[in-house]
Amino acid sequence: MKTTSLKTALLFLGAMMLPVPTAFMGTGLMSDALAANDTKDVTVNATVPNNCNFTGGAVTLAFGNYDPVGTEATTPLDGATTFTFRCTKGGSAALGIDLGANASGSTRRMTFNSEFLNYELYSDSGRTTVWGNDAGSDVDYTSTSSSAHTFDIYGQVPAAQDISVGTYTDTVTITATF
Fold this sequence. Notes:
By secondary structure, the protein is mainly beta.
């Protein structure tokens, strides 16, 4: 009986020394103490740029009728319009308005048949802060959300301008620098 037990023990020990077939790997037949692993971190990132754009359709500031022999002989004619603009949340832009197509020096002018009707654009309802196109007169904006924001443009045609009958126009350009 000792011979059989010794033979069984030797066969058992020999079987333990054989490599484990790959079909049995990961099936729980191997001890966790014999398993090995390695890890590697993957960095994931995305960049959100400062992006801004105008939204909505065309913008028109229509002053209406300017009557140089009536009310506007002594009182300026006021008008206003709005435009919408948006930036990425936390983004910022400087919004400037140029002098228009018919300016003379720093005076904005509408034109009709070689005549000019002076006007001005402002960033405040009191019409005291001229809205220009440089660092001292543009409007700085920092977005608190990615939703569109409405901006008001306030205009004024000064009183007592001696001009002819007609429809006077000009085109100004709003520039966003971001």
